[in-house]
Amino acid sequence: MLTYLIWGIGYGFAAAMQPGQFQAYLMAQTLRQGWRKTLPMIFAPLLSDGPVIVIVLFALSRLPAWWLPVLRFAGGLFALYLAAGTFRAWRDFRPVQESPASGVGWNLFRAALVNLLNPGPYLFWSLVTGPLLLSGWQETPLNGIGLLAGFYMAVIVTLAGFILLCSGSGKLGPRVTRHLLGISGLALAAFGLYQIGSVL
Q1: Spatial contact of 17 and 160, defined as CB atoms under 8 Å apart
Q2: pTM
Q3: How far apart are CA 118 and CA 162, in angstroms?
Q4: Rounded distance between C-alpha atoms, residue 108 and residue 99, angstroms
Q5: H/E/C letters for each residue in 39-78?
Q6: Cβ contact 116:48 at 8 Å
């Protein structure tokens, strides 16, 4: 279980730090209405990922057994692809500017909807964490629970830190955010290589 917990924490941190629509939305909301009103939105993935995980696991459980190593290998390659994109974002980092204010009241449901309509969770759960969760669960349910617990613990803590950094003044926020992007890229590359090596 400890191995799957560590995988979950590593992938959760990397997923939360991936530059994308959801992170940009959180940053814009933090700049617009402050960290106190934005902070509850860190729980949006808990609401939106449920249907994604069910759909992905339903599909994966109906594939032949020899497909799981293939998907784990593809997931390792996808993690390396995400790492390359994260390193590019780290290299060309520019703080996101505040977006225009909207008259629509944003809440946790809207944040979950933003995440649900984002292709990132579907790709991540299909190619990376989904096959790991399925293989771990088949060994023992504790492995699957450990992966999920580590993943969402890391996602929630990282998103909370991301929001607090965005609300910071001066240069501290952007500088630290850039460093976290670099760490995320390294984590993705390391896990991707390990996942590929575990199949070969």
Answers
A1: no
A2: 0.70
A3: 19
A4: 19
A5: HHHHHHHHHHHHHHHHHHHHHHCCCCCCHHHHHHHHHHHH
A6: yes
Please, which residues have CB within 8 angstroms of residue 53's CB and are 6 or more apart in sequence?
125, 130, 133
- Residue pLDDT, tens place only, 127-154: 788 888 888 888 999 999 999 999 999 9
Indicate left, alpha or beta for 170 from its phi (over 0: left) and psi (-120 to 50: alpha): left
Task: Tell me the C-alpha distance between 184 and 195, whole Å.
Answer: 16
**Which residues constitute the domain of residue 118?**
2-199
**pLDDT digits 0-9 by tens, 7-61:** 899 889 888 887 666 777 777 677 667 788 888 889 988 888 888 888 888 887 7
- The residue count for the chain: 200
Residue whose entry in the numeric block shows the structure tokens 């890229």: 185
Instruction: Give residue for tokens 């190593």.
Output: 69
- Sequence-distant (≥ 6) Cβ neighbours of residue 94 within 8 angstroms: none
The count of domains in the chain is: 1
For 98, the 3-state DSSP assignment is coil
Tokens of 157: 């803590």
Q: Centre a 10 Å sphere on the Cβ of residue 3 and count the other Cβ atoms it contains.
A: 11
Element (H, E) at 97: none
* DSSP code, position 64: -
